[in-house]
What we know:
Number of strands: 22
Largest sheet: 5 strands, antiparallel
Number of helices: 14
Strand order of the largest sheet: 4-1-9-8-7
Structural class: alpha+beta
Distance between the termini: 9 Å
Amino acid sequence: MAFDQRETSKKSMGSTQAFDSTASNDKNSMTTPSVTGSSGGDDIPNQPSYIAPVVAKQEEANIFKAKILVAAILLLAVASVSTSTYLLVKHQELSNFENRFAGRASEIATVARQKADQFFQAFEAYSISVSSQAAYEHATQNTSWPFHVIPDFSVKTQSLAELTGVENSYFGVFHIVEEDERRTWEAFVEEVNPIWFEQSATNEGINPETLEDLLNLTVPYVYELDATFQPVPVTRPGFTVPYLQQYPLNMIAGFPSMVSNLDMLSLKQFADLFFITQATGRPAIGFSQIPLDDRTFVPGSQIIQPIYDTPDRTQDRKIVAIAGARLQFLDYFKNILTANERGILVVLKSACPRVYSFSVDASNVIPDPDVLTYKIDGPEAVLIGESDMHDPKYDALGVTEVFVDLEIDPALIPEGTCAPTITLYVYPSKEFEDSFRTPNPIIFTSVVALIFFFTSSVFVLYDFLVGRRQQKVMDRIIQQDMVVSNVFPTGIRERLYQNQGQGHRDGKKSVEQFNGVDGFDFDSGLPASGLAPLADLFPSVTVVFADIAGFTAWSSAREPQQVFVLLESIYSAFDRIAYRHGVFKVETVGDCYVAAVGLPEPMVNHAVVACKFARDCLKKMQEMTRKMEVSLGPDTADLDMRIGIHRYDVIPV
């Protein structure tokens, strides 16, 4: 059965015309020299000269050019793939670095903020406990502020430091003393100092000699420091805020840390924080300097927490004292990273400008910074500078977090003071980025290049062997062709070659023969070659005809592009189903899909395979029309598939 006789005939005609044209061109390109025959030496006209060696040389030149082109393509492929591999692995390393930093930076900011919040909550609870103790003593012993000493001060403050995880910290309590209470206060301090000194010394393990030295260093009056850092009595009118109790009670390399009776309002930074707290009733924080045992200072924070006359949160409660703390910021950044994670920078910036704190002598006045940079190496943290020391190239990766925001209304604070807010910025460093650099980009790139070079070497070797074999075959063909060309005229030789090709290779037919390019004589009804056409009979073939029901009405209401999308999508899916079942697709005409089972290779169960193929096509049709209903219109799902199946004896032409 011919599937499309008209189309096949047209193809045959077209092929015949192309063949004839080629033959004509070959004749026109040939010369006609005289060739001496075996009969009498007469010239044989119209005998073409032999041109096969010229063609072979042209083909060899073309092949050589093709090899050069392939070599250039291979080199370009090696370069491009190697470069792509290198950049891809480098990008993966960069991505790993950025992702790891983003996670760690977020963790650092969150944990540091939690630690700060935890400290403020604990410090507030501490001040409430002091208020409660004072209220109890007022009710039972008729005592009142400012004449109140916190019992077991050293023990309670040490517990606060351990609870919040801060190290190298200093705590103190400053009482608000009115001007008319100043003399009574000085006598009160002289009376209670030996008592709480001894309690603190016992808890801190201070020997009696050191305790005696500290008592002797106590100034017996409320004082401030003059230009030479010597104590002088406070003479200004109004209240003072003298130091009373402190933790730890020790000496710093010969410099006494005992500052009882020092009026804290004489220190500008404390005075600014105090007036903010007095105006808002909330704690305040600022940058400060913390003394170390070697008489040096390190930047840190100074925090003050109001102590009220009552633990109740009433409107008329009054601030009667201040609890103060000096902490190192690095305590907030410890024990966050693992030991192998190093080189993350934390920059702290204060919203307030820097002020100046007192030092141990007048020639060394140390400014309080407004910017600090810390480096986190594993579980440890260290201060590396009093400025923003991060590399600007990492600005895009920086993580910003409000480290301390006490939510103070700037409208409530006194003019000339600053609302204390500290912002935390986390940046990576080159050291942290370098920890993600590996030799993998070079290794992977080298492996890819070696694979390409090895493959190219195999290709070159194979090409050499094939070329040598082909050269031998070509030499033999040329010899045979020269013999045939000298014996037969051109026309006979071509027909001989043509007839010889029809029966070679054990009956296997060329594509040209299968499609009938030999030509056809419509006047005589016989092939132009005079030979019987090549045609094989397939006695057991199942043919499947399928078309879309409702397609005509549906397509008339659609744009051509939508019709194309439908047919292309459905028949592409059918092609994949046909390939899976081993079905031979014949053609598609409009919305009709034609396929056959049992050719070109016979198949025993061709009918069963055809039915399975039709079933799968029906399912796929229903599935796809439902999916395309959104893009192609609501009635797309109404389309259906009509399928006809029949068994035929088939001769493909």
